[in-house]
Structure formats: structure tokens, C-alpha cells
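RETRY 2/3 - previous attempt timed out on the joint model. Re-submitting the same 1093-residue input unchanged.
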Amino acid sequence: MKFDYSDFQTKGIFFPRFFHSLFSIDRKAYSELEAEYDDFGKDLPFALSEIKQRTTDDYFSKILMAQTEAMNYAEYVFPTYKFIVSDALWDDWLATIDPHKSYCRDHSLHQPLTAYIACKLLGYGDAVQSLLLPNNERLLSYCARQMLESPQMKYLRDYFTELYPNYVQIPKQLYQSLAEDVFYETAIISSIFHDIGYPWQYINRLSSSLKIADPQFASTIGRSLDDIFDAVCDRLLAFPFYGYSTVCKAKPVSTWKNTLKELLDRAFRTTHGFPGALGFTFLNDVVRAFPTDMNFNDAIFRFILDWGAVGIMMHDMPRIYKGDKNHAGVPSLRLSFEKDPLSSLISLCDILEEFQRPQARFVKSAGVLRLYYPDTCDYSELTISGSKITITYRYKDCNIAIKMKPIREGEVHDYLNMLNGYIDVSRLGVKTVECIVFS
Amino acid sequence: MENNLSDVEKGKFKLISVESRKGGVGKTTVALNLAKVFLRRNFSVLLIDCDIIGTSISGAIQSDFYKNDFTELLDGDGNTINILDYYQKHYLKGDDDIVSKLNIKFEEKDKKKVFVLESDLYDSKHELIVNPTLLLDEIHSYWFVKMIKSICTSFATRVDAKCAVILDNSPGYLSLNAAIHKWMTENGPKDSKYLLVSSIDKQDLESNLDSATDIKETVDLKNRVLNYYYAMHHATDDDPIVKDEDFVFSNRRAKEMLYQLVDKNTSVEQAPESEIRVTTYLNLIFNKVPEDCQEDLVDRLEQEVSQQKAELLDSIAKSANGRDNLVLFEESVSRQYYTQFYANTLKSKIDITYWKTRISRLNSQNEALKQSDIDMVEKVREIGKLYVSLSNSLTNRAPKSIAATYNAEWTPVIALDRYSEIFSSLQKVLRNYFQLNQDNNLESLYRTYNYRLWDLVSTNKISEYLPLLMSFFEYTNKCSNFHQTDDKGNETIVLGPMLFMYFVESLVSRLPRYKSFPALLRSDICNETSYAVSIEDLIRLSQGCIRARKGGGFVDALNPIYATFYKRLCVILLKTIEMHSDFDLVMTWIEGLITNPNLKMIAKGIHQYLSKVIVDKKEEGNKALLILMMHRAGGIADIENALRSIVYNDWSVR
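RETRY 2/3 succeeded.
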């Protein structure tokens, strides 16, 4: 399966919107935020114009296109996105223009492209069209089946049952397709906002431009570890830290609480996934008023949002999984499609999305420093042959390919090696993973 | 917890949505007359103005045509209710019980009248009440419709009679329209009806036919989803459900419908009734059809629309028999939001740009207002360019149907682009005029006269430009004669009325048939090559007329500003006169506004002249010169008759 920009342009992303997400929005809370944003928020056109000034027309049009898609979808599933999108874009150009940085920030384009990859891998929502796995099952069907049957995903089923005890009213014949739809919707939400944690790291600027009065939110962005703990310990977001099991508070508090706190602290300080997931969760919480006794639609959407936050968080957890010189690794964080198909998919898409990523290049001529944004990668490809997965990156330039080869191979190895890669793909029938970089 | 829009109490009232993709086709006229038809059948009728950027119904119902049958809803203090005002001030703050909150009283003496609930983006001081993105924002549209729903339910409960609620919608297909459609489709064809109004303009027609196709698919989908859901509930291990092979469940709308059924735990004891026919949903009215255009119309339809629409065309042809100016056919119209997906996105983002800029300027009053209005013009241009660039790039990647949508005239993308030039030129004239009057504050002018960019999107709002016309008269005329002698005894021409008269004259008497008035109108509207007459051609022709009369060089040499103004005036008046149903109202209104006796006389003269020219020509049967019919007398009756036929016969309302 090949992924490139022209394919994205042609086919776009199929945004599902299968479930009503607007019912649960508290119009008072939302309109208050909207009024605050009108008074204090950064002007979106201004943020766009800043980017436009600093990028080429071609690159800017791509950003505009991608963010138009994202904003349109967000209007339905994540309406508060519009209050931070200016900051997200602002962050992009701030990071992009700095000649001292060795990378450029391109999340306003990268995120929708990642969503496109997720969309394509999942057959644009149609299981029959989704990726054929080595075990001869389609990716979307497989993920949905894991949600329904995998012993390692009991935690997820328990969580849903808690949200919607009346689940027995759902016709059984619908289970598989419902699970597929939930998975697809969650995957698109999660992937299109998976790097939202980057601007979240600039939390002070964000909080000053969006003076959200909600004390819970304010305390969270104030980075109080206790507050963060209190906010997430009962949410699905914490389950990966519990080893993907239903929280068992019967264990001695000293055992799980301190461990969780330490992990949360590290996650907050060293990843962008966790702050992103927190931001996503709280920006939804501040405007949503889910009733205690939820109906099907509310329960499903709450579930999607909570699970989506997990995907956002876990896509950036490999360093904590592997550990470093000061911290031991946390093996229970290793992903698999049987345990957390969503995070596995988002992580996979993230490493596949290499095409169109610009590499800022500063060229000084006649005393003027000029900035260019050439994209170096033509396409990426994921092929499955027998029990072998091959991930291919094709670069436009031979020298760049040579330079990028060890980086790409290292990343694929870190994520997918059969022994201890971040994503365990062995149960999919995969025995070998190969990375090819060429020009 | 918010409820689904479809939770309205079924059977309590008839809900009719009057709509069209294009402004100026007569939606409000149809809505008003439809309300009268229901009133005559002893229904309690509530007419809600959902066209928040368009025609004000309150203006229309003060005319002789309607004033005896309509009354505006008042709050407890006796003030006219502006529904948007309530929405912003109360509903968004969490108040649910709108009727109690506003202390709406349905007075006994007015029970024989249609209650009108007005909406206006601006308050009496011309201040913006609510950000117009309400129309475009999915959440706000959802809430707005939910609020309307609660009003309707409350109304039906209070009046204790057969009820009908009529919605007069905005042109185009914005989020608000989509939310209303969703409500209606979910409500079912027994209680909800769509009444589509179309002109015979090609793109108007195309978009309506597309809509008809869409709703047909939606209704069909609903039937199949219901059947599937029923089968699913009654499946057993021995008798599992058989998937409908043709029915791909990756269809977003189908799934949404299906999960709604699950959400409501819909009763499945009985199999769904026989398929709901789309024709039970609604009718389409062709309005403003030239008298001599019937056969030609059918020919055009057959030639121009695609093969897939043959069935609908059949209906048109069959229904056309025996009905004079109004071609009716029984098809329902809705356009689900996917096809407008990109258009809505773009529009909302761009409009946010525009309005945010505008509002921030208003907020920071003096600083911004002192600046030249050039930045406003630039902003409009910039928006226009952005639109075009975005729409171009989207068109390249969009499915064909969406690409076609972009090329359709009614799309605000195109309209905005097209009108931005008009807008900027108009500004120049205005600036010049107001500078002479020691007032160079253009923003203040906009606010005073309510000249909104939005108005230009809807041809209905053209009437609001007539104060400008009158200002122009005031500026150029200090006497009642068309010629004026200055202190030195030189005779000068009084420009305003002269231009106006020349303009009218050029329309009705100088042009060959194929370049006649309606053809010119349509050339502006659909830019079709067969008409091949641009507005520029019209200007040239009418200028030629003036030159011929005055020895040439009149407009251009005298003052380029007049030339520009004249050009714009032509466009404005073309559209004003196109809306012949509003013509009398507008002119009467203008006459009422003017206090200066001389100007009043001029206005009256213009009114009479236009009436004479248009009506006389029509009565003389000189259709080659003027083929548009006025609604003034027979036209309105035609509409009423047609609507009565629809209501009684097609909808079986007794």
C-alpha cells in the first residue's frame, strides 16, 4: 500500500461522523469559551498570514488544505479545536523559522497526512478494502475483532460496559460492524490530532491567549502532578500505565499510585503525547456535559474521545517503554494489535508519514538569508508478502536518501523489530520486518 | 442532555420548509402565500424567518398584499421578537423555555392571522447581534434548530388547533439548511414537507434537480436502513439476516441513521411500512417563468440535464400540463451535507475571517475607523482570491459532483468573487459622495445604511440599496426637473433621474428580443454562452443609448464616478426589477421614506414610469420586449392557486 501526497489530494480522507457528537455539548460552556476566544484568542487569519509570509505558496496551500479538512472535522467531533488551532499554527511557524533548530515543525500538515494513512490502511472505513494482513484477515476487521474478543482488551470492554451498562440492547448482529465503525472513527480522531501536544508544551502562551476559567483545566495545565494524577487515574488514559488492565485498586496504594505518578511525571516531561492527550481530554471535558445515565450515542462518543486520547498519548511512548540510562524500561507499555490496536495503528502511521515533510534549508545569498522548504520524500509504502512486512521510503535525492537511511532504518527497528520493537506485530502473522530506503 | 432533533412531538403540526439554492427566486413570496393558504383552512400558522441574512418578512407583511393576514409575534413588553437576539442573549446562556421567557402571547384578536417570528442579524441600531457564522457553524445550527423546534412545539400546544409551521429559509445550502433538512427528514413525510422554489435559470434548476436526486437517495436509504434494522432484530441463528448486496454500509449517512435507531432503541415489533415515496415529501415550484417560455423550458430541460435525472424531468413535463406559469412536480429536495462538505468548510473559514476582521474593527472603533476603507476593499479582494485559490485546488481533488457545485452560480464562492468587484466600486462612489458631505467614515456609512457584503449574496437584499439610490438623487437633485439652470444660466442635466430613465428605457425599448431584459438578467446569473450578453454589454448598450440621445460622451466624459455608479446602478436595478414581485413594495416603501416633496415626486414619477412601462408592455402583449410577468396582480393569484392545489391535493390537507 503506497502513500503519497497526490494520492491524498485525489482521495482525501473519509471522515466518518457516524455518531452524533453534538448532543453532549453544553451550549453555555461552549458559548462562554467562544466569547473568551473572541476577546482573547489569536486570530486565525493572522496566524495563517504569518505562516504564509514565512513559507512558499506551495507549502502554504498544502497547510491550508490540510487544516481546512481538520477544522471541518473538528467542528463536529472536537469543536474546541478552533480555540487552539491558531496557537497550533503559530507554534508551527515559530518552530519552523528558527535557523538554529535542526528540524522544522510541520504538524499542521503532518497530522492530516497521518490521518490519511490511517484512513487508507483501514480501507476508508470499509473493512473489505482495508489492509490484508499476513494472517489473511483485513486490518479493520481484525482490530474490531480484538476489541470484541481479545482477552487482553477486556479492560476496554469493561470501560465501555461501565459507560453503558445497557449495551445488551445493541443487536448482536451489529457488534462487529459497530466495533469497526468505532475503531475507524477513533483512529481518525486520534491520528488527526495526535501531535496536538506540541503546542501544549507551550502551555503558558496558550493559557494566556485562551483564559479558560475552568479550575480543573487550569490546574492541569499548571502541571501539578497530583492534579494530573487525580484527573486521569480513573480515565481510560491511565489504563496503559496499569499494564492495560482494569484498574485494581485493591492493590496496596503504595504499589500502583507511586508507580503511576512517576510514569505520569516522566510522560508529561519527556513526551508530547501525554500533554497532547491531556489537552485533548480536557478541551473536550470543558464543553461536554455527559449525563450520568448515558444513552447509546453519548456512551459511544465519550468512549471514542477517551480512547482517542489514549492513541494520542501512546504514539509517543517508546522512549518510556525502552527506558534510558536513568530509568528502567516499562515492558508493559509495549503495544500490540491484540492489546491496543488503536495506539499501534497511530504509531505505525506516524512512522509511515514521511512524504511531504519539509526540511527547512537556509540559504544565504547576497547577504540575505532565505528559507526554503523542500520536501524530500516522494512516497512511503507498506507491503506485506507472506509473513514479511516491508516499509519503503523513496527519497528524491540520492544524497538525502543516504543521509536518511540510518535514521529511517533505526526508527523502523525501534518500532517494529520482532524482538523488542515498540509495536509487537508477531500475532498478525509477521515474522520479518524490513526497511528499504532508496532514491 | 441534548436531545435529538427528531424528538419533536409527531403529528402536532405540519412543518413546511420553503427553500431554494438561489436568492431572489421568490421564497418569501411563496412562504407568505402558503401561510395564507393554511390560514384559509383554519390552521393556526407560524411563519418563521430562517433567512437571517435575507429578506425581512416584517417589511413585506406591512404591504397591502399581506397586512390583514399577518402579525408579528411580540414579547411581554410588546416588542417585536427577533429570534436571533433571544438566541444570543438567552438560549446560549442555557435558557430552554423560550416561550415563557419571552412571555409570548397569542392574542385572541390575532388568532385569525399568521404569526410571524422575525430574525435579523442586526438590531435597531444596526449593531450586529450575533456572528453570522451561526449559519455556517454546525453546532450553532444544531442549537438554533433545536430552539426553533421548542418554539414550534410550544406554539402547537398553546393554540389548540390544527397547526402549520412554515420556515422561510436562506438561499444556498449552509449548515443551518442542513440542520433543518435533517430535522425534516427524520420527522417523516407525513408531518414535514419541502417546498422548493426555483427559477428557470439553468444553474438554479440544476441545483434543485441535484437536490431532488439527493433526497430521493436519502429517503431510499432510510427505507433500507429501517428494513435492515428490522431484519437484524428478528434474525435468528437459523435465519440470519441477509445483507443487502447493493447497500454498502460504509455510507456515512446510512450508518448515522442506523445508530440513531439503536440510540432510540426504536421499536421493531412491526415491519416498516411500505416504502416511503420521495414524492410524498414535497413539491417544487418554478417561479418567475416567462409566459412564453413553457415549451422552450421543457426543451431546454431535456437537452441540458443529465440522463440520471430523466425520471424527474418526466415529472416536470407531466406536471406542467394545465398549469400556467407555475410548473409543479412532486419530488422532494434535500441535499445532505456531504456534497457541500468542502463548500461549507471553505465558506465558514473565510467568513470567519471576514467577520472577525469586521467585528474587531468595530470594537476598536476610532483607530480602525479612521483608516481608509481601502483595507476593507482589499480584504474583500483577498477573501475572493483565497476563495478562488482554495476552490480551485479543492475542485481538482473533489469528486465530480462537488466540482460541479463549485461551478454553480449560487455557490457563495463564486458570488463573493463576482460581487467583490461590485462592492469595491460601490465603495468608491460612496466614499466620494460622503466626503462631499464631510463624512469620510465609510464604516459608519455601512452601519447607517446597512450595506453589508452579505446582502450582495442574496438578490433579495438589493432593495436595501435603494436608499443609496435615493441618497444619490438627493445629492444630484435639488429640484424636480430633469434639467437645471445654474446661476449663469447654463442648463445642466440632473443626473440621477436621467440615468434611471435612460436605463429603463434602454431595457425596454432598444434591445432586440434575444438580448432582451430577461436574457440579460440570465447572462449575469448563469453566464451562459447562448445568451452571450455580459453586463458590460448592457452598460455599453445603454451608454450608447445615452450617447445617442445626448450627443455622445455623456457618461464617461462628464464624470467617471457617474460612469462607475451608473454601471453598478444597472446591475442593482436589473436585479431589483427582476424581482418584480417586490417591485411595488420597494417603490412604495421608498416613497414613504422620502419627506422632501420634490424627491417624493421624483420617486413617484419613477414608480409610475416603471409600472407603466412594465405593466403596459405586458398588457399590450408585447412579450418580445418584456417577457417577465409581474406578480402584482395575476401573478400572486397564480401562486396562491398553485399553492392551494399543492396543499389540498398533493398534501391532502383538509
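Strands of chain A lie at 2-4, 335-336, 361-365, 368-372, 377-385, 388-395, 423-424, 432-438. Closing ticket.
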